[in-house]
Specification:
Layout: H1 10-14, H2 17-25, E1 31-32, H3 33-40, H4 44-56, E2 60-68, E3 71-78, H5 93-112, E4 123-127, H6 134-153, H7 179-182, E5 193-197
């Protein structure tokens, strides 16, 4: 089956470390496959394949074309806030788990690339598996969504003067109230810790 014929879900498309990097890169910039390849230090053929897959999943749009040595090169961008039909939402737990694994594996790599200058390398970690009122959960979810939206909307091309490279990796979801007991956590009582580091 060719890439054009394959219908791939958004979540399955993002469940790959390179494609996750591409989406971040293309949130603040319109780039061709060659430019993406240079930025991420991969081959142009590899970049082109993954860009076509992300485009087929509806996560990228063609922002224009440019002339390159007598040919045409598409420039892609990630329209992170585009409305997508609910039918495109993932229905597979396997796809959701694959995405969660890729996201979790990206955090140590990104953290290793953190800024280490005194006073500038702020970092915060939090882990919370807690029982809270529904209103509290809704407020937390809205605040996390707002932070994500602000970061995405403010994205600029790599190394733009006056910008800093930053990371925000979040997994926020309601949990099955009965799962803790069935997973051996005992009595359905959730626990959690939170913390920050600077």
């Amino acid at each position: 089956m060719s890439l054009g014929e394959e219908r791939i879900s958004e979540l399955r498309a993002t469940a790959h470390p390179l494609r996750l990097q591409m989406l971040s890169l293309l949130t603040g910039a319109e780039l061709s496959a060659a430019e993406v390849a240079r930025e991420l230090d991969v081959t142009q053929a590899n970049a082109s394949y993954h860009l076509r897959l992300l485009h087929a999943a509806g996560l990228l749009e063609v922002a224009g074309e440019e002339s390159v040595r007598g040919g045409r090169a598409k420039k892609y961008r990630h329209v992170w806030d585009a409305e997508r039909p609910s039918g495109d939402r993932p229905s597979s737990d396997d796809e959701s788990m694959a995405y969660a694994r890729v996201l979790a594996e990206a955090i140590p790599r990104r953290y290793a690339e953190r800024e280490r200058r005194p006073g500038r390398g702020k970092a915060m970690f939090t882990d919370a598996e807690l029982w809270v009122e529904p209103e509290v959960w809704e407020r937390v979810f809205d605040l996390v969504s707002e932070a994500s939206g602000l970061l995405h909307a403010s994205a600029r091309p790599p190394r733009t003067e006056g910008t800093v490279r930053a990371n925000l990796s979040v997994a926020a979801f309601r949990m099955d109230p009965g799962a803790a007991a069935s997973n051996g956590a005992g009595g359905g009582v959730g626990g959690g810790t939170g913390g920050g580091a600077r």
